[in-house]
What we know:
The chain has two domains: 6-13 and 45-414, no CATH class; 425-564, no CATH class. It is built from 26 helices and seven strands. The protein has helices at residues 6-12, 30-44, 47-51, 59-71, 87-99, 103-125, 130-144, 154-174, 179-195, 200-211, 218-230, 232-240, 242-256, 258-261, 275-280, 294-322, 327-341, 343-348, 352-359, 366-377, 383-401, 407-417, 439-455, 478-483, 508-514, 540-548, and strands spanning 425-429, 432-436, 461-466, 488-489, 517-521, 549-555, 559-564. The strands form two sheets. It has a five-stranded mixed β-sheet with strand order 4-3-5-7-6. A hairpin with a 2-residue loop joins strand 1 and strand 2 (432-436). 53% of the residues are buried.
Amino acid sequence: MTAVDDSAAARRGSEPTEPPPPGSGQRRRWPDLVAVAVLAAGLLLPLRGLLVNQGPPMEEGFMLVFPELVLRGELPNRDFLHLYGPGGLWVLAGAFKVFGVSLLVERLVAFLQLAGIVFGVYLIARRWGRLLGLASAVISLVIIVPPLGLTALAWNGAVALGLLALVAALASLDRDQGHTRTVVAGVLFGFALLYRLDLVVAVALGAVALARGARSGFARRLTAGLALGLSPYLIHLFTAGPSTVIRGMILDPVVYLRGGRRLPIPPRPGRLDGFLQRAGDLRRLDWPLPVPRTATQLTIWFFVLLASATFVLVVGWWAFRQDRGSIRARALLAVGAFGFGLLPQAVQRVDSAHFAWVSCVPVAMLPVAIAEVLRRRRPHGSPRRQALTSGAAVTAMVLLLFPNFTFRTYADYSVQTFGYHRNSWKIAHDGRIFFYGRADVADAAKQLLADLDEIAEPGQKVVVGESDLRRTNYSDAYLYYLLLPDLVPGTHYIEMDPGMANREGSGLADDVRAADFVILSSVWDDWREPNDSRELGSDEPNQVLRRHFCLVGDYDGFYRLYRRCR
């Protein structure tokens, strides 16, 4: 059989209980509206807490700065370090152009990305019924919301687009005349790669699973849509230059970055190796249930993720081999292949953020895979009971085995919505705001910005780095956002990474030499990770600073401001 035809499968008796797809007009709509309302409530409950919570100072900082630089005519890879595709920056730049440059706009775009993941999971899992659709989407929600709050990172946008591409492709296979949907699916896959080129493995596996044995012309239309979605890369290659794009999107993240970001595999159950992981573990919401220690939870999560991704893929393949005409079997195979293709992201740096960015698909689809096994092994069993059993089992697993990174953090954001357990302080400057997680650092930053206002002139350049420029583990890039548009970033390395900004000949020393002001932060001096970030890089930027810059002020030991000596 080459065409996907579940009605024929039902006539053979192979899948008598498979419901028609959503939107078929054969079922009442209001239960689906209730499910959507539940998911919307789940997303909205922590929203206010997320909007006023601290964002990651470097990651959210550069996702605020980069789109504004794009609006000023600068190009990623050529004018500033950017390790991913330009798609996310273009979308944010468009949002800033329409609604203005602000933290609120950036965080609302991030919210839409998270919603895209949650509802993408729901629309795929919904093929097994509303209960399983809701269970899978809720699990995805409590996994994907906590890691970095509302930061419009390219990864989340790419995964959301990839899931929606699967939804569109499966919808096209539901009907004999789904040609437009197939092209749309390909375009969405292309857009996903425009956000993150390293999603290519997941997209390729998902697309192959969709096209295998599908009706004639499906693969051709999917490929045409993919080419159309990828075509904006031609603009980026032409404007930024092929060599800078290849270096910025392939060589920098794959060759130069990995040694300074890699952590021991598997995560050690006795200690947290990631610096930001340890910092985040200091402020946990009180939790009524007994839980393993945080490092142990991370280790457990690692193995659960690997097992879940493998299990969903294997069950999808098994179900597809059982009945190649089943759209549900094909859906499970496609989402299983897509989720399995996300695993490199979880392995490249084994911390909770990377685990969440991957788990939001395979762990969320685990209830569906379990229910599929139960249904095929016990075809006369109650589908509702099977759905409840599998959904409750996976929810309990996430709740009991690694709650610190999921339910507990989600609950923390939710109570912050109502003013409880707030751990953020506002830094405001010239109408722009950022929220920081330490009052003392926020106060120091405010005084620093006030002093800069007194001595700086519009258009001057500023460089922000660590207290010792031989180490470039992290950056308070949010300061660039607060200082724009009056003061402009004076370095290619707005995002600081070990082994890149501090390597010999990186150009950082030249950037410091050409700057008018330098801000050094000691907030990250305790950065200790078992990787190449411990190695000191070139001392040339420090030498340039000592020769050409004079100290203006020290701000409670957290920041030092230098200006070019006259």
